[in-house]
Amino acid sequence: MNGRIAVVTGGTGTIGTEICKHLAASGCRVVALCLPGMPDCRLDDWEAARKSEGYTMHALGCNVADFDDTEKTFKKIENEIGPVSVLVNAAGITRDAALRKMSFEQWRAVLSANLDSVFNTTRCVIEGMMDRGFGRIVNISSVNGQKGQFGQANYAASKAGMHGFTMSVAREGARKGVTCNTVSPGYIESPMIMAVPEEHRAKIVAEIPVGRFGKPAEIARLVAFLAAEESAFITGADVSINGGQHMG
Ligand code: CAA
Ligand code: NAP
């Protein structure tokens, strides 16, 4: 990717970190964004850990649910590092509850972090990508946005909404060298699924034909493939990567 700049939201998270490493291995200069004040947003520690693995990457704090903070951060990246060619939207949260128990705060928190964020970041990069004639946008959705999930009306709505956004941006960018795709992972080894009560997790793994949860690196490999220059003809797609849990 010849030094192209890639920004990964949720880039210091479990899947995000693997995505950063795969993009760096493909030749991108990588900037990871994380939510200031959270445990995995210790910028120096994260950068040092990547350095010890042989990668040089930047990490910046940015609340991507907040448009002003996002705009300020992307201006800083453009001014201090350079124009963004690849955007991966991997920031996301869950606030699971059956709908009859779900509060408006749980609904709003998930829609803001998972879906408003995708508008905020993409709005900041789309014009530059179209003007320069090259862009790759990859939005990390979920199998639960495709099929629904008990206790996730908020999360499933945010992730399904993400793909409507993807298809529209794909149409807008198609003649300008900008692709936009969705990646829909199934259940991946991560703290996010460890937060699901053991009895539910056991039922979920039993539904996965491959017989195990996925690995963050398996998602990252697909994201790097979609971000490659050679993937110019793939746009508006929703690529499932779920061990066969949901097909069709
Ligand atoms: N399907 C159908 N019914 C279910 C159910 C399910 N999956 N889960 C629970 N129920 C039923 C229960 O049997 C129970 O029925 P009765 O009232 O008739 O006894 C009722 O719903 C209440 O069940 P709970 O006591 O479990 O409800 P709760 O309010 O304590 O918990 C919950 C609800 C927090 C949503 C819990 O069900 C849960 O954690 N489910 C798993 C949610 C999940 O898979 N989240 C994925 C997180 S990982 C992720 O999101 C990453 C990704 O993208 C894949
Ligand atoms: P994770 O480790 O919790 O990573 C999520 C990242 O998003 C964290 O780094 C978090 O930052 C960041 N984030 C959340 N809200 C933010 C905000 N407002 N501003 C900036 N950053 C924010 O979770 P993960 O398992 O790697 O998940 C990554 C993505 O994959 C999510 O979009 C998730 O929905 C999706 N996904 C996960 C699975 C799975 O099984 N794990 C399956 C399908 C899809 P802080 O930690 O600093 O708050």
Concise account of the structure shown:
With 248 residues, the protein is of the alpha/beta class. The protein has a single domain (5-238), classed as NAD(P)-binding Rossmann-like Domain (Rossmann fold, 3-Layer(aba) Sandwich).
Q: What is the overall pLDDT average?
A: 97
- Order of secondary-structure elements: EHEHEHEHEHHEHHHE
Distance between the termini: 32 Å
By CATH, the topology is Rossmann fold
Q: If classified by CATH, what would the architecture be?
A: 3-Layer(aba) Sandwich
Q: Uncertain segments of ≥5 residues (pLDDT<50)?
A: none
CATH class, named Alpha Beta
Relevant CATH superfamily: NAD(P)-binding Rossmann-like Domain
Radius of gyration: 17 Å
Content of β-strand: 15-25%
Number of domains: 1
Q: Shape from CA axes?
A: globular
Percent range for helical residues?
40-55%
Task: Give the number of helices.
Answer: 9
**Class of secondary structure makeup:** alpha/beta
Bound chemical compounds: acetoacetyl-coenzyme A, NADP nicotinamide-adenine-dinucleotide phosphate
Please report the total strand number as a whole number.
7
